[in-house]
Amino acid sequence: MTAVIETRALTKSYGSVHALDGLTLSIPRGGVYGVLGPNGAGKSTLFRTLLGLIRPTSGEALVMGGKIGDVAASRRMGSMIETPRFPPYMTARQVLTWLSQAHGLKADTAKVSRWLERVGLTEAADRKVRGFSVGMLQRLGVAIALITEPELVILDEPTSGMDPPGIQEMRALIRSLADREGITVILASHQLLEVQRVCDRVAIMNKGRLVREGAVSELTASGERLRLNVSPLASAMGVLGDRGVLEGEAIVAAVKRGEAPALIRALVEKGVDVTEARWVGADLESVFMSETGSIQTAESIHAD
Ligand SMILES: Nc1ncnc2c1ncn2[C@@H]1O[C@H](COP(=O)(O)OP(=O)(O)OP(=O)(O)O)[C@@H](O)[C@H]1O
Ligand SMILES: [Mg+2]
After folding, report:
1. pLDDT value at position 1?
2. pLDDT, tens digit, 9 for 90 and up, residues 204-228
3. Which residues have CB less than 5 Å away from ligand 2 (the ion)?
4. Atom 4, ligand 1: which residue's CA is nearest?
5. Do 214 and 282 share a domain, yes or no?
6. Which ligand is closest to the CA of 55, given by its number?
7. Which residues are near ligand 1 (CB < 6 Å)?
8. Which residues in the chain land under pLDDT 50?
9. In this structure, what CATH number is given to the domain that contains residue 265?
10. How many domains does the chain have?
11. Please, what sign has the CA dihedral across residues 66, 209, 151, 114?
């Protein structure tokens, strides 16, 4: 597994605030990687540091195999950090043309049009960005990040301010970048359901530190429980003991996959009718809450 990003004890302090506090992280090449964390966790600081926009206080990072700021490595990256701003008197098409040329690309009107279309800005292409909504600015920012055809793209909250169809389009675009074009996408987002849908792996940060990292499927499987529709409930609860919790008409059992057949046999032997038994995964939101907050979710309470 080659890494596009490798950080070791990366630290960025602003006075007494440790925006990054000894962060050690490895982001593999390929796929979509989510960086999650509450406000102020250090996500944007991490991205700015990796892009060479700010200097770390201590620690190291390798980006596409090069040191931070390495020109050859930087050329293979695109990025959008938070909601971008552009000269208000320019149109989206002019901004994209101007910035692609600033990156050393030849004037290519067809390519500019193609990218405006891919981010859903065809109709607004010749309007001045002065009147653009936050979501439209984000779309333009994404087009700018991608027009240089980078191998790695870093998108800081690409869907913040977007309407639901826009979020869906962005999800499809991000997946196709990874799946069809082989681009590694790193994104920060607070929309955990979106992250769960689009990301292959995630890092959860809190207070500048890494608190959890892994494949989305692994993180959500770890809180997996067995949801049972059974009757009578009382007899079933008798079999389950403190492994079972009543949720409405169903019982949710904190058991491992391997224990399920024996459990169901035990229920049947006690005269319990099992009409449905299915696995329910923990969603990313509950993993996030239990890793970063003091809020105890049903999952974290029942997980052990
Ligand atoms: N230029 C700066 N000067 C002082 N403190 C800063 C600066 N930039 C960031 N910080 C602080 O560093 C911490 C991390 O901020 P950062 O913007 O990286 O968080 P984030 O995870 O991107 O949050 P959000 O989800 O709100 O975007 C915060 O406490 C923030 O106030
Ligand atoms: Mg941020």
Report:
1. 56
2. 999 999 999 999 988 887 778 899 9
3. 43-44
4. 14
5. no
6. 1
7. 14, 17, 19, 37, 39-45
8. 294-304
9. 3.30.70
10. 2
11. negative
* Cα–Cα distance for residue pair 38/58, rounded to 1 Å: 23
| Pairing state between β 77-80 and 66-67 | unpaired
Same domain for 210 and 69, yes or no, is yes
pLDDT, position 54: 94
Per-residue DSSP letters for 19-86? Answer: EEEEEEEEEESSSEEEEE-STTSSHHHHHHHHTTSS--SEEEEEETTEETT-HHHHHTEEEE-SS---
The residue range of the domain holding 232 is 221-302
Q: Whose CA is nearest to atom 1 of ligand 1?
A: 14
Looking at ligand 1, which residue's alpha carbon is closest to its atom 6? 14
163, 229: one domain: no
Query: Within this chain, do residues 206 and 227 fall inside the same structural domain, yes or no?
Result: no
Distance (Å, whole) CA 135 – CA 228? 42
Backbone angles phi, psi at 210, to 5 degrees: -85, 125
CATH of the domain at 106: 3.40.50.300
Domain end, chosen from 185, 219, 253, is at 219
What's the token pair of residue 9? Answer: 């004890």
Pair (281, 205) in one structural domain: no
- Alpha carbons 300 and 222: distance in angstroms, whole number: 11
Specify whether the CB–CB gap between 182 and 272 falls below 8 A. Answer: no
